[in-house]
Amino acid sequence: MDGFINLKKLPNWTSHDCVAKVRRILQTKKVGHGGTLDPAAVGVLPIAIGKATRLLEYLPTGKAYRAIIRLGVQTTTDDLEGEVIYSEPVTDIAIEQIRHTLTEFIGDIVQTPPMYSAIQVNGQRLYKLARAGEVIEVPTRQVKIDRIDILNWTPGDFPEVEVQIACGGGTYIRSIARDLGTKLGTRGVLAFLERNASCGLQLADSITLEELEQQQQAGTFRPISPDRALSHLPSATLVDAELVKFWSQGKQLALAGIELTPTASQLDGYVKVMSADGCLGIGEMRSIDGIQLIVPQKVLI
Question: What dihedral angle (degrees, nearest 10) is formed by the CA atoms of 52, 53, 55, 61?
């Protein structure tokens, strides 16, 4: 059983909890996920099972979130799970001011992740250091924000703005909430987070752990094939058994006898290597001594 699950994570589950539950349901040890979701967050958590765990790094990197940001409040964790350390009513901020300020987050920006995050510093998770009371400088990172759309605006003493965010991997929405409040002259906190797209998977197509267990018990569960999950990559199809054998031995392959999609034959980069039986792994197109070759990166057989 090799492939992916478009899992809908529910609140109060950690990503690690979900992986452990999938292991129990499917009775397999090789399970991994494609990007941590905070316990309070809901939405798409890509899960890989079996040999597909080796393909997680090749999934599309784009993500999308629906978030509610509350202004006038700050917590230790930058969401409502933490201790409140600032709370002052906000009465002088208009939606147009927020709309203008949000444009400052679009593009390639430098972001400081929350102190309570899974980033490692000197081999230690930041959230563990924070819980131990250690004060440490959080390393910044460059992230990409493609788009932020305002979905709803709820005025009041502690107004809330609901937004849809399209971004690259590694982006912390809690940091956007915190920094938006700062730019507006107040504080901000993430009040709700739903990931509605990740690694090419959409929330509308996701299943819960309960649904996964029901499908497994009924014998109807089928994982998403690596071929489908990696549909963004060009493909190189091995047309005979000898080529498959060479590939399984980790050998570089010349292009003779290999069917390439047009983008694969024109560009350097990663390709999914296929046979009639399915995905055989990931190769990289390289020109070596003037000869175009497929160099194995991940061999699944």
Answer: 120
Residue 154: predicted pLDDT: 96
Closest CA to 273 of 260, 283, 262, 261: 283
C-alpha span between 35 and 41 (Å, rounded): 12
Give CA–CA dist 164/62, Å, rounded.
Answer: 14
Q: Which of 161, 77, 74 has the alpha carbon at shortest distance from 113?
A: 77
pLDDT digits (tens, 9 = 90+) for 72-112: 999 999 999 999 999 999 989 999 999 999 999 999 999 98
Q: Among 69, 277, 83, which residue's Cα sits nearest to residue 193?
A: 69
* Stated length of the chain: 301
pTM as predicted: 0.90
Find, among 194, 172, 200, the residue nearest to 180 by Cα. Answer: 172
Q: Which residues are catalytic?
A: 38
Residue in 178, 180, 194, 186 with CA at minimum distance from that of residue 76: 178
pLDDT per residue as tens digits for the range 110-143: 998 887 766 666 666 666 766 766 667 778 899 9
> Which amino acid does the sequence have at 159?
P
Say if residues 45 and 7 touch (Cβ distance below 8 Å). yes
Phi, psi values for residue 82, rounded to 5°: -95, 180
